[in-house]
Write a structure and sequence with these properties.
The chain is mainly α and 185 residues long. Helices cover 57% and strands 0% of the residues. The protein is built from 7 helices and no strands. It is globular and about 45 Å long.
Length: 185
């Protein structure tokens, strides 16, 4: 298991570099096909199914028959809310993050993928440096951060407007969470 974890970690690190090198526009990062490629780059050296939509039932996530349509609808919603500036940039992206994790489009790696996608979407929207630290500011152990993260996601599962817990968990308290004067193209 340790060897598999090390291989995954190395693949994810290469995937992160690849994503940054692509210089994706924010509109690319609300596109299912681009996001599938991101997942493939993060996990493709380890898993043959990387970047492929899940075809079987799992203990989490929606019925595989609905993944593509539901995920596209959530991505389209995010694009609308970004253009409308309905919520702050971080809240908008974290709502999409939660929805992606809930859909669970891939067999594995959904949380790691969705966190990277959230980070990259915020960067593409012009929020620098990375406003999300995913609980590091809470000075907890890795396991405590994971528990707090899952609790925040579950709170959103119960009430889709209860995003405050996930924002408090994920947002670096020193970060600026404001829309740029104009959206980057």
């Amino acid at each position: 298991m340790a060897e598999l974890n090390a291989l995954e970690a190395a693949n994810i690190a290469r995937g992160m570099l690849w994503v940054r090198e692509q210089g994706f526009a924010w509109t690319d990062l609300v596109d299912q096909y681009t996001l599938r490629e991101v997942h493939r780059e993060m996990f493709g050296d380890v898993w043959a199914w990387a970047g492929k939509i899940r075809q079987r039932e799992t203990t989490v996530g929606i019925d595989p028959a609905y993944i593509q349509g539901d995920w596209k609808a959530r991505l389209d919603d995010a694009e609308f809310h970004i253009n409308a500036r309905t919520w702050s940039p971080v809240e908008t992206v974290l709502r999409l993050h939660h929805q992606t994790v809930a859909i669970h489009p891939f067999v594995n790696g959904n949380g790691r993928f969705a966190r990277l996608a959230a980070d990259e979407l915020l960067a593409a929207l012009g929020l620098h440096p990375d406003p999300l630290d995913w609980g590091v500011h809470l000075a907890r152990t890795k396991e405590q951060r994971r528990t707090a993260y899952l609790e925040a996601l579950r709170a959103l599962d119960m009430n889709r407007n209860n995003v405050d817990g996930l924002v408090t968990f994920a947002l670096d308290p020193n970060a600026v969470d404001e829309w740029p004067s104009s959206l980057p193209s």
